[in-house]
Amino acid sequence: MGTLQANFFISLDGVVEGPGAGDDFALAGWTGPYWSDEIGQVIGTGMMQSEAMLLGRKTYTSFKDGFANTPPAHPMHQIRKYVVSRTLHAADWGNASVISGDITAEVARLKQELRGPLIVSGSTALVHSLFDAGLVDEINLLVYPVVLGQGQRLFKDGSSAKLTLTHQQTLAHGVVHLTYAVEAPAAA
């Protein structure tokens, strides 16, 4: 059985919106000044260890556009991608398919079929629904030493869970890589 891992760039105040320079967000690109090869290695290692990616439509489109000029052998073109969308009927970027309908049932089925990690990068609304359904097994964060004061948060109001820290690593420029196992909903 596979696991579902949610991967995010996150500010100290919990904002996950607009980490890339081309994102549609007033403060887009806030991770750029902190980029390092070490951060790239962490991201690449996580991708290479995964069996597939789960993406919302907007993230899928952003990734497709962002990796359009990379060589066909780039891992982002090769990795199996599942795109969650109610409006997209076909996915035309390497090794991708669309899932719709009962998303939680489809993701639960995928987790049963896969042997390795199914990773979600970005796609905040998708992660909110999967987290609420108890389908997220692990949260990987690259925490940036910046406070944004606005934007989408990783956890929506009312979310709760017990998390256990399983990995921590300080990277260049004060960025911290944290991995948490999601154990169970927190007691009310």
Question: What CATH first level would be assigned?
Answer: Alpha Beta
> What is the H/E string?
EHEHHEEHEHEEE
- What is the tally of beta strands? 8
Q: Would you identify the CATH H-level superfamily? A: Dihydrofolate Reductase, subunit A
Write up this protein.
With 188 residues, the protein is of the alpha/beta class. The protein has a single domain, classed as Dihydrofolate Reductase, subunit A (3-Layer(aba) Sandwich), CATH 3.40.430. Helices cover 25% and strands 28% of the residues. It is built from 5 helices and 8 strands, in the order βαβααββαβαβββ. It has an 8-stranded mixed beta sheet with strand order 4-3-2-5-1-6-8-7, sandwiched between helices. β7 and β8 form a beta hairpin. The longest helix is centred in the N-terminal third of the chain and has 13 residues. It is globular and about 40 Å long. It starts with a strand and ends with a strand.
